[in-house]
Amino acid sequence: MHLLCDLIFIFCDIVSGFPIIGIEWQKMENPDLRKAMGMKPDQKGVRVRRVEPTAPESGCLQPSDIILSFDGVDIANDGTVPFRHGERISFSYLVSQKYTGDKALIKVLRNSKVHEFKIKLATHKRLIAAHVKGRPPSYYIVAGFVFAAVSVPYLRSEYGKDYEYDAPVKLLVKHLHSMAESPDEQLVVVSQVLVADINIGYEDIVNTQVLAVNGHPVKNLKDLVTTVENCKDEFLKFDLEYDQIVVLETKTAKAATEDILTTHCIPSAMSDDLKT
């Protein structure tokens, strides 16, 4: 799993508040690839694969840009820069020496022309948040279905400190690759199902992403709560990943929720942060 990180986000410890460059990048060691991208023999760098839509860099960097240097330090085709005693290290090290709000000069090759951009480094919004800033976990329950937003603390609570090895591959792939399209986007899942007569047949759904409710795409947990609470349709239909669906009679589902909460000694159908 750690080998994948060389090809994925350039990042440092987001929990400590350091910035990142919100991109995925590709090594440029292959000579045919360099030639096809319009690089001259003396030019070296890494290719931008994707740019986070919420990152400040999205305003200047584009897919297939070749990042040649960061703050005047040339980047090798394998993504490394000089380090102490003749060693080399990933150029993410240069980013880790900065603080949120600092500016950096990035030189890129685009369509055989060199461009320079001064970017303001920021701590970006990830689809799966690295931390929840000490807040209690958010949740919403209807008809025994427990909905939650996935975060790194959530993965740790579900799968332990070795979540990077023990969590389902589908969640790890999203953790490593998925990008938030907007600052408030979250990955919402059915965390578990509290067994009751109304949800018979759905008991095995665990940590499965919710894509839409009654045709309305789920943007975040609050969005799901609002859609369900305001639903006047006869049925609640949840579209889950891998073309799985959950259908419940709306009136019956809402009526059953209180009894299920009482049975499991749960004081509220939703966390306090979702009540406002």
Topology of helices and strands:
Blueprint: E1 9-10, E2 21-26, H1 31-36, E3 46-51, E4 66-70, E5 73-74, E6 80-82, E7 88-90, H2 92-96, E8 103-110, E9 113-120, E10 140-142, E11 145-149, H3 152-159, H4 163-166, H5 169-177, E12 188-193, E13 208-213, E14 216-217, H6 221-229, E15 235-240, E16 245-249, H7 250-263
Antiparallel strand pairs: 1-2, 2-3, 3-4, 4-5, 4-8, 6-7, 8-9, 10-11, 11-12, 12-13, 13-14, 13-15, 15-16
Key features of this structure:
N-terminal domain of MutM-like DNA repair proteins, signal, disordered N terminus, 7 helices, Pdz3 Domain, PDZ, alpha+beta, Protease Do-like PDZ domain-containing protein, seven-stranded antiparallel sheet, 276 residues, protease, serine protease
